Every structure is written in C-alpha cells, then in structure tokens.
Amino acid sequence: MRKGLDARVVVRRGAFDLDLALAAEPGEVVALLGPNGAGKSTALRALAGLVPMAGGHVRVDGADLRPLPPERRGIGMVFQDYLLFPHLSALDNVAFGPRCQGERKAAARRRAAEWLARVGLAEHASSRPRALSGGQAQRVALARALAVEPRLLLLDEPLAALDAHTRLEIRAALGRHLAGFGGAAVLVTHDPLDAMVLADRIVVVERGRLVQQGPPAEVARRPRTDYVARLVGLNLYRGRADGHTVVLEEGHRLDTVDSLQGEVFLAFSPDAVALYRSRPDGSPRNLWQATIGAVERRGDRVRIRLDGPPFTAAADVTPGAVAELRLTEGSRVWAAVKATETRVYPA
Amino acid sequence: MKRMMAAAAAVLTLAAAGCGDTGGKRDGGGGAKTLTVFAAASLTESFTALGRSFEGTHPGVKVRFNFGGSSALAQQITQGAPADVFAAASPATMKTVTDGGAASGQPQVFAKNRLVIAVPPQDPGKVAKLADLARPGLKVVLCAEQVPCGAAAEKALAAAGVRVKPASQEQDVKAVLTKVRLGEADAGLVYRTDAKAAAAQVKGIEFAESAKAVNDYPIAALAKAPQPALARQFVGLVLSGQGRTALTGAGFESP
Amino acid sequence: MTTRDADRPPGRPPWILVLPALTGLVFLVLPLAGLLVRAPWSTLGTRLAEPQVLEALRLSLVSATLATVLCLLFGVPLAWVLARVRLPGMRLVRALVTVPLVLPPVVGGVALLLALGRRGLAGRWLEAAFGISLPFTTAGVVLAETFVAMPFLVISVEGALRAADLRLEEAAATLGASRWTIFRRVTLPLVAPGVAAGAVLCWARALGEFGATITFAGNFPGRTQTMPLAVYLALETDPQAAIVLSLVLLAVSVVVLAALRDRWTGAS
C-alpha cells in the first residue's frame, strides 16, 4: 500500500481537458503551479470530490476516494476566499468539522479552541468572520481544515486574497503549520514565490497537463517551458547540442560550458546579458545584434527586451547603463552572454 | 428600454382612445341614449330578454345592466353610482335605497320567488321533504342569514319547526348551488329560479312551507336617474303582461 | 444606527424617485384613511365585545399561523428543490408553483373542492379510507389559506437560495457534512432572512384570504368563519360593522408584523 496521495485526475468539460498524475508522500507539500485556466483549481476540486472525474483514481493511504462524495473523503480544504460560514463564530466555524464527525458539541468546541490557539487566534474565538481581517480569516480557514485531522490537505490559492504585507507574514505562518502537518498536502498557486517557499515539490500545470515537476530549486534552475522560465526570470531556448555548442531552434549558435549531445534546453539569466552600443572589441564568443523592443523599470534594474532576429531575449541593466548607452525602443545594440553564464540540460 | 417606452406609449394611446369613446356616448352624440339598470343577479336571464325587447321598441336606446348581489348594488346606488332603475331581490335592500331618498316614488313588487330544496341529481341523501334536512349526518348548506336567501330559509325552517344544523352558511345562493352541484353538500335551500337555471346539475324539490317565506322583488325608478322617462317606461315594461311572461318563464311567480 | 447613517448615499434623494414614491404611498394609504374616517368610533367598544367578532379573530389568527407553518414545512423544501435540483421540466414546475397566485381565489377554492372535496380526486379516497372530510372544517380553512399563501413563501425562499453562495455548501461538504446537515446548518441559516420575509408575506396573505376559504371551507361561525368572511357578510347588512371588523383585522396584523420585524432586525 502506498502512503499519502496517489492520484490521476481526469476531468473533461467541453473543450477543457485535464489529465494529471499527482502524488504526495505523507508530510510532503506539493505545489500545483500554473497560469490561470491551466486546471489547477479544477484538479484540486476533483480531489475533493466537488468536480466529477471522467477517469483516473484518487487514492489516499491506499484507499480509493473516487467513488465517495466530498463529505466522506476525510480531506481538509482551504478555499481561496476562505468561505467561512458568516453566521457562525470563528470557534463554531472550526468546530463545524468535528461536529460533522459526530463529536459532541462541547468536545468539538474544545478541539476547535485548541486549533484556534494553535493558529494564534484564541482571543478571536467569538468573532464573526465579518469582524476578522483577511489574515485572521485565512488562519481560521486553516484551523477549520486541520481540525478534521485530514489525511490530505488541499489549499486553493490560500494567500491570493491577502495584501503584500500580510502575505509575507501569513506565508511564513502557513509554512510552519504545513511543516507540522503529518499528511499529504497539495497547494494550488499561481505565485512562484509561494510555491518556492512552501512546497517540497512543484508540479507545473499548463493547459491541463503536467509540464514539469521537481524540487523548487531544480524547477527554478532548469525551467522547461516559457511559462516557468518567465516565472523564475530566465531566458529559455530549445536547441540541439553538439559538445560545447548549441544550435537554437531560431538558428543561432551559442557556445556553452556544459557539454551535451542532442535535444537540450539552454537558459541564462537576464543579468548575464551585456549590452554594447557598438561591436565590442575582443569579441566575446556569444555575440549578436538585436533591436530594443521595450524598456521597462523593475525595481532598481531596467529590463530591456531584445527582439530578434536572431532570437528574443531579456536583459537587465542599471539605469545608469540605460542613460550611458542611450537604450531606447527601436535602437540597435550588440548583446553578449558569456559561455560560463549559460546552463544547458537535456530536453 | 426603447421597447418599454413604446409599450407605455401604446397603453397611453389606448387609454386616451377609450376615454374619447365613452365621452362621445355620454354626450349622446347622434341621439343615442343609455338606460342603466341595476338588478339582482337572479334576474339575469329574464331582464336581459326584457332589455332586448325594450331596445327593439325604443330605437336609439341602449339598455345596460349591472347584475349583482342586491345589497352590493344598493350600496353602490346610495354611494352615488349613476343608475336609472333598481330591481332588488328583497324589500329590505330596496328599503336602504328608499330610506336614503334615492328612489323616485314607491317601489313596486313585480315578482315573487320561493325556495326549493336543491339536491344533486342522484340525491345521495334521499331528501324528499323539508323535515329531512334535520336528519343527522346529512350535509346541508344554507345562505348566511345576512343575505336575503338566508333570511328566507330561516323563516321557512322556523315556520315548519325544522331545526337544521348547516355545515356552512354561504355568502350567496350561487355558492349554495356550487356546493350542491359538486356533491359537497347533500342538500341546500335555493330559489326556485336558481334551481331552474341549473336544472341540468341539480334537482329542485318543492316544499309546502316555502309559501311562508316568499321573497318579494321590488323595482323602482331612481331619483337621480339620468334618463327618468326611459326609467319609468322600463319599470312599466317589467310590470306589464310581457314582463310577467318573461319572469314566470324563469321560475318567478307573479305578485 | 450609526453605521446605517454612514451607509446612506450622499445628496438629496432625486424628485423623480420621490414623487412616484409618495404617489404610491398615498395610493396605498388613502383607502385605509377612508376606513378610519368612516369608522363608527362611538360604538366601537360594544361591537368589538361581540363574541362572534372575537371568535372570528381567534380563528383567523390560528388558521393563518397554522397555514404559515404548513407553508414552511412544505414550501421551504420545495423552494430548495426548485433552486438546487437540475432536471428537465423544472421551469414548468416553477410555473405550476405560481398557479395559485394567478388563479382567482374563488376558482382556487373550487379547484380544491374538485381535488379534496367529498367527490374530489383525492378527497374521495380520503373519505373512503380514513373517513376524513375536509370541506366545512377548520382544517379546510387552513388548507385553503395554505394553497393561496404558499407561492409567496416559495418564491421568496427560492430567491434567497439562488442568491446564497453555493461554495459555502461545498466548504461544508469538505468538512464532512451530509447534504441534510448542510441544509440545516449552513443553507437554512444563510437564507433565514428570506425565509422570514416569505413567512411574513405568507401569514399576511393567509390572514386576508377570502375567496378560496369561503368556497372550499364554507362559512360557519366558530368553525370556518374567519375575519374576512365575517367582514364580507357584515357588509351585506351592516357596513359599519364591516368597517369595524376590517379595522380590527388591520390593527392586529400591523401589530404582529411590526413586532416580528423588530425582533428579526434586532436579532441580525
């Protein structure tokens, strides 16, 4: 028997088609990362039994949950906007699950009080959800989901509704609670930072399919789709490697330090791109001429979009460099990236 | 929104047209005159026929009827409804009109109506005479004592010394007929004219004691009649031999 | 109170709304003024003390309340089915529910006789099997009122159910709540204001019911004669008495509705 979650979720709705294999060990947090409409939330709702599955299975600790209705699956779910019951106090929201499991009112409330204390909301036990802040509501929702002592915890964008400041704080708290949770957990998010911080493993979903998975550091270092590359801020290309050179699909040749053969991905950071007004002397090997497509400020750096031919790329430079090199939209520049800054891995 | 405006405009136009129409008639443009008769509901068939014949002998005159419960009609008249003639189902209701000074001259009794026992066609209660109505278990409905048919029923039953426990005291004679027709009641007391009008669905059983509770139907031209001459002529027609024939045909008795 | 003040939109209400609003109000209140002006105030006391009046009032209150209870018992689940169950033909079912709204009440009464009367579709069987006969009984009054008033409750509750957030029910399901528990502990509390509003409408409609009641249950003092029936018959002989009875009915219903309203708004 396999412990934890072992599922294949198949959902078809009109043109939408989701087919996703998912596994999570007990104690493991798996993040489903993907663009809007990729099917992440649908997958989560299918695991919960809220969306009928066209095929596949949902096994938790060996038992198939697929034939069971949501209320008999023994899962805990935290919803995007928390969905606390507005007519119940925070305490009774948390006690709701234990009550449904047949516990007596007093016992359920005791348990709920413990959970509220654990998320640091003991003094808000009698508050109605309306009176809670976003962060407090999120913690009540978490306590409510954990109070049923689920073997599988599902979290649907648990931080999306929070403002940036609260988010930081709540993310850290959520991380602590997830670390203390003994069951399998699946977290849906479209924020790579949430995924990187909270998950042990990231599963990237695009258009209903798994496109990449691995530990956060691995996914961040070696993106395999444009979407992931954009999320982790890398330039990504496909090509054919032949030793220390890679011929990109766009036709350009780049020199690399890694030596591989066959279909590969090639990635480099926008920071690694150097720009010149005129052809530099001493000719670095990976040099090309490009047109500036866009100039936009990003914090203390400036992101320059370089349009092809031969290929598009992003370069990050300092504002000083923008002034010095007169980097404006439409102007022509020389771009270079050192072979040591490129990363090549099999496709 | 545009469609709604159009609909509203159409309604307004219709309303305006309607107003224009009635205005024309009231003005009597073209010499047309309208005689308005308020009459008890039980007179519907006989008076409609008389009205048609009145129109035949009075070219250019239109007779308009308002049939209804006598007391409701009397209320409307005392509250100033424009009517020329009032024919009531009981002297008591006529009295509320004459007391208010709304009648012109003395009302005259033009017909009498008496009660019969109405039973469903198969007569499940096996009712033959008035005394049978006192039988326990028999469902009897009467008119409420506040309405003329109820008062008459009470009088007849008292005269016969029969004590009936009605299942219901209905608001008018038609309601009694409905209950009998649907078989909810085994028997009810209704006017002979009503039983006759519903002959296909109920059986009317005459009883001797009904003579003790005969209902007089008085008629009067009204003081504020817009057409006083025509009003007098219509009353005359009702009291004439022709009127009598029409009324006896409907089940009324002559006074 | 203070929050309510803060919520008020700024500026003066526009006359284009205020004018028709006032016209509407006057139209609704003027007939009441007519009743009040013409009421025989001097004999009011003695008329009210008549046992028949009190009996009719008691019967009205009891039957309207029972009818409301029946409407809640059957109407709330019906509204739930209409709002939540997706089956072909639901549109038709919804239209059927509103039939009593459109039907003239007297016709409704006849229809009830044809269904539940001694010779009626179901009534025949009721009488044969259980010896139950509904016409001319207080139970008949309650049924007639229920028939006429139920659509008010169903429509009100269905609207509330449609407006309620379905995802809260999903959240409850993931916490292990069965559908019945969800209905009882989540759905019903969420739509409670709608249920309350529906029940008030329902009770008011039942209290004023005339046509279906007199047709189905008949009129007998103490058994089936409710206030509206007493008013109607009083109108035949003694219009002044009718006015008094109407005012009594009006006063009682206004007091009850106002009291209930305060309680509900106080609770929420």
From TrEMBL, chain A:
Keyword Nucleotide-binding: yes
Keywords, ordered alphabetically: ATP-binding, Cell membrane, Ion transport, Iron, Iron transport, Membrane, Molybdenum, Nucleotide-binding, Transport
Ion transport in keyword set: yes
Domain ABC transporter: 2-232
Domain of life of the native organism: Bacteria
GO molecular function, one term: ATP hydrolysis activity
Gene Ontology cellular-component annotations: membrane
Domain (Mop): residue spans on this chain: 281-346
Gene3D superfamilies cross-referenced by the UniProt entry: 2.40.50.100, P-loop containing nucleotide triphosphate hydrolases (3.40.50.300)
One GO term of the biological process aspect: molybdate ion transport
PANTHER family: SPERMIDINE/PUTRESCINE IMPORT ATP-BINDING PROTEIN POTA, SPERMIDINE_PUTRESCINE IMPORT ATP-BINDING PROTEIN POTA
Protein's name in the database: Molybdenum import ATP-binding protein ModC
Source organism: Actinomadura macrotermitis
Upper taxonomic lineage: Bacteria, Bacillati, Actinomycetota, Actinomycetes, Streptosporangiales
TrEMBL record, chain B:
GO biological process, one term: molybdate ion transport
Matching PROSITE patterns: PROKAR_LIPOPROTEIN
Binding site for molybdate: S42, S70, V173, Y191
Signal peptide (residue range): 1-17
Keywords for this protein: Metal-binding, Molybdenum, Signal
Family as reported in the entry's similarity comment: Belongs to the bacterial solute-binding protein ModA family.
Name this protein carries in UniProt: Molybdate-binding protein ModA
Origin species: Actinomadura macrotermitis
UniProtKB/TrEMBL annotation, chain C:
InterPro entries with a match to the protein in the record: MetI-like (IPR000515), MetI-like_sf (IPR035906), ModB_ABC (IPR011867), NifC_ABC_porter (IPR006469)
GO cellular component: plasma membrane
Signal sequence range: none
Domain of life: Bacteria
Membrane topology: Multi-pass membrane protein
Subcellular location: Cell membrane
Record keyword Oxidoreductase present: no
Entry GO MF terms: molybdate ion transmembrane transporter activity
SUPFAM superfamilies in alphabetical order: MetI-like (SSF161098)
Coiled-coil parts of chain: none
Family annotation (Pfam families): BPD_transp_1
Membrane-spanning parts: 15-37, 57-83, 95-116, 136-157, 186-206, 241-260
Record's function text: Part of the binding-protein-dependent transport system for molybdenum; probably responsible for the translocation of the substrate across the membrane.
UniProt family annotation: Belongs to the binding-protein-dependent transport system permease family. CysTW subfamily.
Name of the protein this chain belongs to: Molybdenum transport system permease
Native source organism of the sequence: Actinomadura macrotermitis
Gene: modB
